Amino acid sequence: xxxxxxxxxxxxxxxxxxxxxxxxxxxxxxxxxxxxxxxxxxxxxxxxxxxxxxxxxxxxxxxxxxxxxxxxxxxxxxxxxxxxxxxxxxxxxxxxxxxxxxxxxxxxxxxxxxxxxxxxxxxxxxxxxxxxxxxxxxxxxxxxxxxxxxxxxxxxxxxxxxxxxxxxxxxxxxxxxxxxxxxxxxxxxxxxxxxxxxxxxxxxxxx
Length: 207
Prior knowledge:
Helix content is about 85%, strand content about 0%. The chain is mainly alpha-helical. Helix 3 (about 25-85) runs parallel beside helix 7.
């Protein structure tokens, strides 16, 4: 009886100890917690890096938008000024015949800018998917860290670690497939503006 009384207090004391104290006294749990905290820090660092990359790509896309409208506005103004300063009918007729030159330049420039915008938009979409994946990993890892801190030595290492790996490997995209995206509408809009610019060039030089 006295033996039972002498062994029960340490057992009760171990059960009532704070989970963090239990982890500190258990090498495997302590090592796992350190590893997960370090991995969480690395994931947060990658998230920050991906966000800065996305911001940089969006600034480049905005600059392409500005350059597109600036280029065509200046081109139309210069053509209008040149057409207005032409007084003779022969010069006007010659300018109309050569209207294919500025039209071709405008078309090639528009296609180049549209391709650049499309490419940068694809890069942005890819980075957003990577960022979303990193955030999901951080959420899963944070949940495991909280469970480990809450349960202490009662935390089942094999079960929880296996569940974490399974959650990462079986993760699938849950978004519905869209036939049209915002990038497609942007491309269509820029192509329409390019066609309008070509019509205005023809109108300015041949009117």
